[in-house]
Amino acid sequence: MNISNLIIYFITGGLFTTLIVALEESGQRTLSGLATLIPIFTLVAYFFIGQAQGSEAVSQHAKWVLAGTLVSWVPYMLAVAYLSPKIGSHNAILVGLAVFFVLALIYIAVASHFELFR
After folding, report:
1. Distance (Å, rounded) from C-alpha 104 to C-alpha 110?
2. Which of 32, 82, 86, 108 is deepest in the core (most CB within 10 A)?
């Protein structure tokens, strides 16, 4: 892994994040929402993983992420959506992240124990 690739990965991810926030702040909620729904980080990551390690690595990673999304990301989003009006967005995000990390660690432990997605 060379430093110039890391810089490109960092700039690419930051560019998309900046675009999403700028669209939201300018009142373009539909475009911001659409941009947020696009799997930018996996899109960029899979492009570079495929380039560096091939399509089999992308396939294995996608399977890992798909299962992990169902286990940890969906409950995170549900927690944020449900709790934001009740306890405020910052607190809801913190609770959601706690839910995410607990479930993600359990997922990693189970997947590692049973050697899933090798």
Report:
1. 10
2. 32
* The pLDDT value given to residue 118: 65
H-helix or E-strand spanning residue 61: helix 55-68
What is the Cα–Cα distance from 23 to 86, expressed in whole angstroms? Answer: 26
Token pair for residue 44? Answer: 């960029």
Token pair in block for residue 29: 């909620």
Q: What does the pLDDT read at residue 6? A: 83
This model's pTM is above 0.85: no
Residue located via tokens 């294995």: 60
Backbone phi and psi for residue 28, each to the nearest 5 degrees, phi listed first: -90, 65
**pLDDT digit string (tens) for 26-73?**
999 888 888 888 787 788 889 889 999 999 999 999 999 999 999 999
What pLDDT does residue 42 have?
84
Here the contacts of 76-79 (C-beta below 8 Å, separation 24 or greater) are: 76/100, 76/103
Q: Is 23 helix (H, G, I), strand (E, B) or coil?
A: helix
Q: What are phi and psi of 100, to 5 degrees?
A: -55, -50
